[in-house]
Amino acid sequence: MARLPLVAGNWKMNKTVEQTERLLSDLVNSSKSQRGVEILVCPPFVGLETAARVLQGTQIKLGAQNLHWETSGAYTGEVSPVMLAELCEYVIIGHSERRAYFGETDQTVNLRVKAALAHDLTPIVCVGETLEQNEAGQTAEVVSRQVRMGLADVTTSSAKGLVVAYEPVWAIGTGKAATPDGASDVIEVVIRPALEYVFDEDFAQATRVLYGGSLKPGNAREFFDQPEIDGGLVGGASLNADDFLAIIRAAA
Ligand code: PEP
User: Fold this and answer.
1) CA distances from 25 to 127, 155, 237, 240 (A)
2) 40: which strand partners?
3) Is 129 designated active site?
4) Which atom from ligand 1 is nearest to the alpha carbon of 215?
């Protein structure tokens, strides 16, 4: 089944509004003729409005890095799906940094996924095991649970387009990427069967599953050559236009 590759840049807590404008202008100019890949950037909340303006009429899509599940109310510091839907198409949910530092659980991931879908935002649901879990042989159990619980009670019709990102926690920001074969195996043997359990086989085969964790221009092609890997969620290397473009080209 042909799945259009997606390369998404997770800027995390990087780039001021001015820097956002500059980086995106560079990306727009150099990716104009790029085909065969969907390109997405996810700046911090404060940069979204500027990003939406710079990206208007271009092929680069815009996403947020998180959202709250309520539409409005007394939730100081939070941003609602209604607000994001005015600016974005995508939203990253359950990134390991949110799970590790901000108390994100499979239950809150599930609430956020449902809220995103209810407001026509496409979730990129992040899953992945820690080093300790990996070394204890728990990868399959942990990742399968994250997919099944994060997506529990989500209907097949509402979830169309949903993306999963497999990001082994030990590979994020460490410079120590997983092996392309190893990541591909987890996607084939754990993530697609878990998607089939929640939805159905057609949905599992149609769903894009990205790899994330120390993707760089020098290793991206090896990952994207794996038929199970449908693109990448890129942290550090998405902060530099040349590096991000090289990864985009490797996926196309
Ligand atoms: C990420 O933040 O999702 C990520 C994969 O980061 P990095 O590419 O820097 O490892």
Assistant:
1) 31, 38, 17, 12
2) 8, 61
3) no
4) 8
**How far does the centroid of ligand 1 lie from the alpha carbon of residue 119, in Å?**
26
pLDDT tens by residue, 165-183: 999 999 988 888 899 999 9
Cα(74) to centroid(ligand 1), Å: 32
Contact criterion met (CB below 8 Å) for 55 and 24: yes
Q: 84 alpha carbon to ligand 1 midpoint, in Å?
A: 22
Confirm whether 68 is a catalytic residue.
no
**Alpha carbon distance 38, 232 (integer Å):** 11
pLDDT band, very low/low/confident/very high, at 190 (cuts 50, 70, 90)? very high
- Closest approach atom of ligand 1 to CA 96: 3
CB-neighbour burial class of residue 107 (10 A; exposed 0-12, middle 13-18, buried 19+)? exposed
Q: Are 209 and 244 in contact (CB under 8 A)?
A: no
Alpha-carbon gap, residue 210 to 165, rounded angstroms: 4
**Cβ atoms of residues 32 and 57 within 8 Å:** no
Write the pLDDT tens digit of every residue in 91-109: 999 999 999 999 999 999 9
